[in-house]
Write a structure and sequence with these properties.
alpha+beta
């Protein structure tokens, strides 16, 4: 009986010792986590932008020819003749780029589904940074292919130049905003984790309008051009670490 009591006491002591051994690593792990969290700097994401209004320096003029005839072949031939004639003269103007635009031929049906007529539409698109040359060419070609619309934009090379000029401003705006964010949350400074660079253009011009010109033999006539402006912007998006002095 005495031997059994001694064995129970020994086992109880062993269990208590094991419990103590097992709890020590868990306690140390929790302390390590708290220390790691204390030293890890918080992160924040932000965005900054620099922009400027830039005059649109490129005009795009769309010329269109519409034909209607009971014969599909006649419609196709009329469109082809107009395209060949107009494109030949357009290509002769070295200051204006000319390319084919939309081309469609479609039937008109009566109530019973029978084809009663054919219609077709073909376009040539003129594009140039020389407004005077584009205006004169459009006026010259309008007797065979009238103007159906126009638009303005900033040339890609112009946009790139302005974006390069804005890069330093965007970087300064990002740095100022990052420091203001750190200060607002009670931190002394920041360090950059990552930065992504982007750009965009937002066109602005008077209300769009469709323009048409009556046929005229006076080739000195000019199409009125009224370009607007476009906002060229450089955007920086990134993540930062918020930092404070070690105590």
């Amino acid at each position: 009986m005495y031997w059994l009591q001694q064995k129970r006491i020994w086992l109880s002591g062993l269990a208590a010792g094991l419990a103590m051994v097992l709890t020590v690593p868990v306690h140390a792990h929790e302390e390590g986590d708290r220390e790691a969290r204390r030293k890890a700097w918080p992160q924040a994401t932000l965005e900054a932008q620099a922009f400027k209004e830039v005059s649109q320096d490129t005009v795009t003029i769309t010329l269109a020819k519409e034909v209607s005839d009971p014969s599909q072949e006649a419609v196709v031939k009329a469109l082809s003749d107009a395209l060949d004639s107009v494109m030949k003269d357009a290509k002769a103007e070295g200051k204006v780029q000319a390319r084919s635009g939309d081309y469609r031929v479609w039937p008109h049906n009566d109530d019973e589904g029978a084809i009663t007529n054919w219609r077709g539409r073909a376009e040539i698109v003129l594009k140039s940074t020389d407004f005077a040359a584009a205006s004169a060419l459009a006026a010259k070609l309008s007797d065979r292919m009238p103007i159906s619309g126009m638009g303005f934009s900033v040339a890609p090379e112009t946009r790139v130049k302005h974006e390069q000029d804005l890069l330093a401003e965007a970087a300064k705006a990002f740095q100022d905003r990052a420091q203001a964010l750190a200060t607002a949350f009670g931190y002394e400074s920041y360090s950059i984790k990552s930065v992504n660079l982007g750009g965009m253009g937002v066109p602005y011009q008077p209300a769009p309008r469709m323009m048409a010109m009556a046929a005229s033999a006076d080739e000195s006539a000019r199409v009125p051009l009224e370009p607007g402006t476009e906002r060229v912007a450089v955007t920086m998006q990134g993540s930062i670490f918020l930092r404070s002095k070690e105590k």
